[in-house]
Specification:
The protein has 479 residues and is an all-alpha fold. The protein is built from 20 helices and four strands. Bound molecules: iron/sulfur cluster.
């Protein structure tokens, strides 16, 4: 096992992310040693400033002269390519094994994809439900429907969340505190406020976090999974993506536990199905797409978007209340829930026309659960529609009215989500119409964009010209 500084610097990783990875690795190392499994471990303190996994692997191969190099399928194409290159160079045989922390093997996904005109989550998800017998009654979906999304889109209205959201606050132990000091020393300029690091770094702690979610968060998770509220960071979300990605939890066991909560009458079907769709469906689906279409997938740029990432993505200093809140939160803590990512930060980037590779790198750097296999398809495909519809059927585009409906951010904002021009114009609303007008040709063939394009056609040319000018001046401002 190796702590290579390159893994924290190839993008400017948030300190929370670095601590989370390193502390989990060190706890795992100590566990292996406690059960007498020999392990060679490279600590960050003990090698050069600029160490890479390939440098450390080459060093070990030359010293140990192994019969073969055996690894599980890396979740990052860059890492796999560098390991392959070291093995080629040193003449070592490389054995790549299926990663048991995923339910669908790469070849199974390829079989699913073969002979299909287009890939869609829904078909893959149904197949996974049937194959793994999850939420099934014989050959039918439990409750008679595959999808309860309609019940899962509520906002909090004016009164806010109906009850206190569960708090997941592990107190860092000695090993984690050591890693926190090390990260503060080695990566002082990276974002992140480590005075409040609370992530679970062992399987036991991750399990107790999951137990708490199933008991306190799951009953309301579905209804409010798309809702946002100022200063409420986690709401009823599970936070399991990070411990799942670090292999502290097993996805199938997580799914079975959530399904059991429904069977025992402790969670509604819509919440249970919504959660299971994320873990059994979406998580496995994006991984399949990643391994099938990398390395070219990362470079996709359907809209030919070329704006640079505004500097406020690294500081949170913007007048847009929604962006300020979501950016400050993730810069400080390394966490933001999926709707903050997709319908605030990702949406703004899409509408502004930020280069997809730049925004992808920002996402890879910023979230504790960011790993290439999951972040790249979610950003390139889902959030930025840069793959032109390979992963999702339409771009997630909306005006400030969506943010207003699903949160209370607009209440404290100097802008008005209904206005597209003038001093109070909401940048989301201005940029939305400008985005549709700029990409009219590209979007007009998309059946799921028909309503939005029809509304654009109804707009008179004078108003649209005003919006174009307002959008232009927004692009020339730094915030
Ligand atoms: Fe965000 Fe616009 Fe609402 Fe302000 S008015 S919080 S910029 S959506």
């Amino acid at each position: 096992m190796a702590e290579a500084s390159e893994e924290s610097t190839h993008v400017l990783s948030n300190k929370h992310r670095i601590v989370y990875f390193l502390s989990s690795m060190r706890h795992f190392r100590d566990h292996l040693r406690s059960i007498n499994i020999p392990i060679r471990y490279h600590s960050l303190e003990h090698h050069d400033e600029d160490s890479s996994l390939s440098y450390l692997l080459r060093k070990d191969i030359l010293e140990l002269n192994p019969l073969e190099v055996s690894i599980v399928k890396p979740g990052d194409f860059r890492v796999e390519a560098s390991i392959r290159s070291v093995c080629r160079e040193t003449g070592s045989e490389l054995n790549i094994r299926h990663d048991l922390h995923f339910i669908c093997k790469e070849n199974q996904f390829e079989e699913h994809a073969a002979n299909r005109k287009s890939l869609r989550l829904e078909f893959f998800y149904r197949e996974m439900r049937r194959k793994n017998n999850i939420l099934m009654e014989k050959s039918d979906p439990t409750g008679g429907s595959w999808n309860y999304d309609k019940e899962n889109r509520e906002s909090f209205k004016k009164t806010g969340p109906p009850s206190t959201a569960p708090s997941y606050e592990e107190t860092p132990d000695r090993l984690t505190r050591e890693v926190i000091s090390l990260v503060e020393k080695r990566f002082p300029d990276h974002p992140g406020d480590l005075s409040h690091f609370h992530w679970p770094v062992t399987p036991r702690d991750a399990q107790s976090q999951l137990d708490k979610f199933v008991c306190e968060g799951l009953p309301l998770f579905g209804r409010f999974q798309d809702a946002m509220w100022q200063d409420q960071k986690t709401l009823f979300h599970s936070l399991v993506a990070a411990p799942l990605n670090l292999r502290l939890l097993d996805p199938l066991k997580v799914i079975r536990q959530v399904e059991r909560a429904y069977d025992e009458g402790n969670a509604p079907l819509a919440a249970t199905e919504g959660f299971i769709r994320q873990v059994l469906g979406w998580r496995e689906y994006v991984r399949g797409i990643y391994h099938m279409y990398m390395p070219g997938y990362r470079e996709s740029n359907f809209f030919e978007a070329s704006e640079t990432l505004p500097n406020f993505f690294w500081t949170g200093e913007t007048e847009m209340a929604c962006m300020k809140s979501c950016l400050t939160q993730v810069l400080d803590t390394g966490y933001g829930h999926h709707i903050q990512r997709l319908m605030v930060i990702g949406l703004y980037s899409l509408l502004r026309g930020v280069n997809p590779q730049e925004i992808n790198n920002w996402f890879l750097a910023s979230y504790v659960d960011a790993v290439d296999w999951v972040t790249t398809p979610n950003v390139i495909g889902m959030s930025q529609f840069a793959d032109g519809g390979l992963l999702a059927s339409k771009p997630y585009s909306a005006t400030g009215a969506y943010v207003n409906r699903m949160s209370n951010y607009c209440k404290s904002c100097q802008y008005n989500p209904k206005e597209s021009v003038g001093p109070k114009a909401c940048p989301f609303t201005t940029l939305y119409w400008n985005f549709l007008a700029r990409h009219r040709e590209r979007l007009s063939g998309n059946q799921r964009m028909v309503m939005q394009m029809r509304n654009l056609e109804r707009m008179d040319e004078g108003k649209l010209n005003g919006i174009r000018k307002a959008a232009d001046s927004l692009l020339h401002q730094s915030n």
